[in-house]
Amino acid sequence: MALPRLARQWPAALLVAALAACQAPTSTSTSTARGANDVASPLAAWDQDQDKTLQGVVVLREGRIVAERYYNGATAASLNDIRSAGKSVTALLATIAMDRGTITSASDPVRKYWPEAAGSAVGEATIDDLLTMRSGLAADDEDPASPGIEDHMDEAADPVAFLLAIPRKDAPGTTYRYNSLTAYAAGIVVGKATGADLGAFAGTALFEPLGIAAWRWNKDVAGNTKGQGNLWLSTRSLATIGEMVRCGGEFRGRRIVSAGGIETMLRPRVPIAATDPYADEYGRLWYFKSHPVGDFRVPVWFASGNGGNKIYVVPNLRMVVAITSQAYGRGYGQRRSQEILTSVLRDAIEHPTPAGIGSAPPGLLAPHCGR
After folding, report:
1. Nearest to residue 202, comparing CAs of 177, 179, 231, 223?
2. What is the pLDDT of residues 211-246, one digit of tens each?
3. Which residues of the chain form beta strands (DSSP E)?
4. Gap between the Cα atoms of 302 and 304, Å rounded
5. Residue 370 burial (CB count, 10 A)
6. Which H or E run includes 44?
7. Which long-range contacts (CB under 8 A, 24 or more apart) does 125-129 make?
8. Which pTM was predicted?
């Protein structure tokens, strides 16, 4: 999936140049970094946005911060509720559980790890069904009449009992319906399989190895970490997670998630462009879009949350873009984040790094980072 026309735009030597090693996001002065002024300029334009909900944008190229800007009183230390972008973190934790063998197969039914779910509709769905929004449950967050929508779950005195009572609408693995209920179920399964609450597992298996010390993850009234969202992170921490994903599961030379697990998690599985204007396909709680930028189509994998919270991973450009925003419940936040991404991609294409711009390899992401 090379960017169209790239071979005619840049010398072949640039397309195969070696890349810098993946590392923690490292600040680089926007006045001296190659192309940084070009990237920073469109970020500054959002200072004038009359909607005062944008919080922060961090742009990494080859693991280095080339642009970083905060808005409306937010700072680099501010924690933000990234809403459903937390689902993509749940997917990472499920992948780690599979790497460690505590979940032996994504084809296993939920009831194998959660015996109390036996006999329920969710208990017969597989782990993969949950992670691809194809659980078969009567839950559709786009349909207010659906019995399993997120608002009903949030209002339930016992969210677990609520989940177990939701009936089946169709066979598991057959129909995509976006809903928070199945991501919540995925979080419970990860907790049952690992013997730890999802949040505690996130702390030891993901955040600590990434050097993320400041975070919190809301729990529901039953005391379960909300695998469907409400994870609070800084914009830099979102970028760090994105860089680890871009590097195929490695961070500072440390393997956190298997390369195969990352690839399987990201691999587009379900076409959703007909119902989602911001994505082409869905993987395991991660989105994919072939993003139009002028004459180019740029492959982008991303996590997405209500209000415009995003982790964009752009392997061809060796780039990660993290955005935090509080435009909750309004479509403007999603449109604004896409506009920010488009402006950053345009500048990256016009001002390539010395390594140039590459094509996505068969392994998707892992070969893009050195050792």
Report:
1. 231
2. 999 999 999 999 999 999 999 999 999 999 999 999
3. 26-27, 54-61, 64-70, 80-81, 216-217, 231-233, 250-251, 254-255, 270-271, 281-282, 287-293, 296-305, 309-314, 319-325
4. 6
5. 14
6. helix 36-44
7. 125/172, 125/173, 125/182, 125/185, 126/172, 126/173, 127/94, 127/103, 127/186, 127/189, 128/173, 128/284, 129/172, 129/173, 129/182
8. 0.89
Query: What phi and psi values does residue 126 have, to the nearest 5 degrees?
Result: -90, 170
Q: Around 129, how many Cα atoms within 13 Å sit in the side-chain half-sphere?
A: 24
Residue reference for tokens 């001002």: 351
Q: Phi/psi of residue 303, each to 5°? A: -100, 145
The number of helix segments (H) and strand segments (E) in the chain equals 15, 14
Q: 103-140 pLDDT, tens per residue? A: 999 999 999 999 999 999 999 999 999 999 999 999 99
The angle that helices 235-246 and 85-100 make with each other, rounded to 10 degrees, is 40
CB 34 within 8 A of CB 351: yes
- Check: CB of residue 166 under 8 Å from CB of residue 150: no
Q: Which residue has the tokens 């911001």?
A: 278
Q: What angle, 0 to 180 degrees and rounded to 10, lies between the N-to-C axes of helices 259-266 and 85-100?
A: 140
Per 3-state DSSP, the chain is made up of helix, strand and coil in percentages (nearest 5) of 40, 20, 45
Torsion of CA 112, 115, 118, 124, to 10 degrees: -30
Q: Which two tokens stand for residue 8?
A: 């005619």
Angle (nearest 5°) at CA 65 between 61 and 69: 120
